[in-house]
Amino acid sequence: MKKSRCLARTSTWIAASLVLAGGLAAQEPPGAGQAQLDPYVVGSSLPPLDPGRAMVDMSLEGALQRALEFNLDIQTASLNPRVQAFALQAARAAFAPTLSGNYGYNNQTRQSTSQLDGGARTSTERLTFNTSLSQTVPWYGGRLSADFNNSRTETNNAFSTLSLNYTQPLLAGLRTDNQRAALQTQEIQGQIAGIQLDAQVANIIDQVRIRYWNLRATIEQIEIQRRAVEQARELLAQNELRVQLGSMAQIEVVQAQSQVAAAEQALLNAEVQWRNAELGLKSLLLSGADDSLLTQTINPTELPTLREQAVDIQAALEVALRERTDLRQQRQQLEVSAIDLEVTDNERLPDLNLTASYSLAGVGGNRFDRSGLGGEAVLIQQGGYVDGLNDIAQFDTPTWSVSMNFSYPIGLRGEKASAERARLQYEQSQLAIRAQELAVVTEVTEAGLAVTDTQLQLEAASRSRELAEENALATVTRFNAGVATNFEVGEANDDLTAARLSELRALINHINAIAEFERVQRFG
Asked: What pTM value is reported for the model?
């Protein structure tokens, strides 16, 4: 019940402002009133407005939406997943098929060395046109290639060959290799980029929320300090009047003047803090140096509202250890380390490759017959390039082969050192996760305790402000009756101002503590 009354008092945000009336005990000037309470509702104050500057009303939701749309850090971070997507495409390109072709022409003249030649010199023209299609397959490290070779000579004979080859590693390169590891790594890096973007957005939104409430607090602080200046000046005016009437010594006026100077200095400091707070919020909302908001004055229109927050630290820890972005990112990095370790372990194995090939050959062109050794060639059948293709299509001349190739570098010192280094890096990643989990547990626990602590501090600050109001009112009443000194009135007013500021900060701290408790469970 006590907590409910305190929340109700704070949510209405009533902090009384004393107005020193002119009652002067035995010698009151005409028209003097009595001390009374001037209700002060937090949120009704407006920021100072410089000449020529427009004021822009902005809710918290409006500030958050503007940050999501215009914040330069968010815009920069949003490009990272797209950059990573292109990196993933580049890694996948290693498994794309490659088409290649070759065209050649050769003209050769040589002296005859055999009676089978057609003269003292022979000339041969040869045309070649070869194509091939090859691809590294993304499973088990195999490589497939298909070759189609063609040649034609001046004798009008054409030769064509179609062959298929497949090479499969049986030891090194079977489970993984650098290309497949690069593809897996880029896929994980894409997930990490998305996690980092979520964390970046969440953290900037959290900063916007904190700076928004800080700006609201500095505006209220200006109003509180302005009222303190008015109180000090009113007290000074009354003291000067009492001196004129002879009921007060001149030294009291000097003390009141000192209080006025101190209050004016505090007001100036509050205005400086407000300007810094506004600039800090704008830095998260501006789209650039030419943004019109830079030359405008922000009026945060939303008021902080209290809400009940159940603090279940154990449940929060379970959520955080499962969903925190920094832990998810570290676990993804552990997967990358595991891939690197697997690659380096695989490189220590011998190379043992199984190669299978199958080819078909065809011959086309005119066919000749010679009668006797060195006789004249007689055309017996005309033909062409299509004849060679028909031979291939009929599978008349198949050739197949299977072979195994083995190699093993003696020593493997470099590969062993790389494997041990990768193993140590993997262990480091595991320890980093454990350390991060411990840091998360500590951070979430502290955030949960902060919600409870700030709630108690808010209740204490509200009670302190109420007592400060009662004390200030009682001190003014005693001063008007002549039983309190000018110093005591100023001290009571200073205590009231400090209590109001303390309650304001306590409320802002409690609201921020609740939001921080929710944030640290999912974003780090």
From this structure: 0.73
